[in-house]
Design goal:
The complex is a heterodimer of chains A (112) and B (114). In chain A, the strands form two sheets. In chain A, strands 2, 4, 5, 6, 9, 10 and 11 form a seven-stranded mixed β-sheet that branches. Chain A has a four-stranded antiparallel β-sheet with strand order 1-3-8-7, with no helix packed on it. Helices cover 0% and strands 59% of the residues of chain A. Chain A is built from no helices and eleven strands. Helices cover 0% and strands 51% of the residues of chain B. Chain B is built from no helices and twelve strands. In chain B, strands 2, 5, 6, 10, 11 and 12 form a six-stranded mixed β-sheet that branches. Chain B has a four-stranded antiparallel β-sheet with strand order 3-9-8-7, with no helix packed on it. The chains are: A mainly beta (112), B mainly beta (114). At the A-B interface, β4, β5 and β9 of A face β5, β6 and β11 of B.
């Protein structure tokens, strides 16, 4: 089983719909992240959480919200999806300071 | 705030040729630096990382990178490209000021010609 699991892997949704992307990890890490990948822009940080009671906005948080349900679970929601939120979304986890991040396989989201 | 600049969104080399992917960072405190690789339809995989030990870092698949503080650079190299190296490569930085969250560059797609 993968260390970081994202569901769904692919999703097509309509403009205005609410959608939730889920992430779970078995690494035992405190820190979890949501990134968005667009061609030519690299990965942009949406939200991050350093423990269950800690939630922080990243570079591009507008239009998104998150929930840290447990140490191992971190979900990303789009309250009212719009077409420019069409992208590849990655969840990642890391330990504390100077350690690498481990990534899920990604969720490809298309908003039509 | 820290940032990462990757020069060249696309780099094309012949099989067997030297691979050089450039990364410059901005950080007001000692950084930790990473190179990740992304193969098609996959997540990101760590190639190597610099965490203030040796300035020349060796990674997987024959890649290495050298931390040069005076040039604020962390360029990725491989002496001889293989067809299987074709992928997208991302440089990333983290530091104490950012609470060690990872900030990524825009990526460089490596094309390997037969």
């Amino acid at each position: 089983d993968a260390d970081v699991t994202q569901t769904p892997r692919n999703r097509i949704t309509k403009t205005g719909k609410r959608i939730m992307l889920e992430c779970s990890q078995t690494k035992g890490h405190d820190r979890m992240y949501w990134y968005r990948q667009d061609p030519g822009l690299g990965l942009q940080l949406i939200y991050y959480s350093f423990d269950v009671k800690d939630i922080n906005k990243g570079e591009i948080s507008d239009g998104y919200s998150v929930s840290r349900q447990a140490q191992a679970k971190f979900s990303l929601s789009l309250e009212s999806a719009i077409p420019n939120q069409t992208a590849l979304y990655f969840c990642a986890t890391s330990g504390r300071q100077n350690t690498e991040a481990f990534f899920g396989q990604g969720t490809r989201l298309t908003v039509v | 705030a820290q940032s990462v600049t990757q020069l060249g969104s696309h780099v094309s080399v012949s099989e067997g040729a030297l691979v050089l992917l450039r990364c410059n960072y901005s950080s007001s405190v000692p950084p930790y630096l990473f190179w990740y690789v992304q193969y098609p339809n996959q997540g990101l995989q760590l190639l190597l990382k610099y965490t203030s030990a040796a300035t020349l870092v060796k990674g997987i698949n024959g890649f290495e990178a050298e931390f040069k503080k005076s040039e604020t650079s962390f360029h990725l190299t491989k002496p001889s490209a293989h067809m299987s190296d074709a992928a997208e490569y991302f440089c990333a930085v983290s530091d104490l000021d950012s609470s060690y969250k990872l900030i990524f560059g825009s990526g460089t797609r490596l094309l390997v010609r037969p």
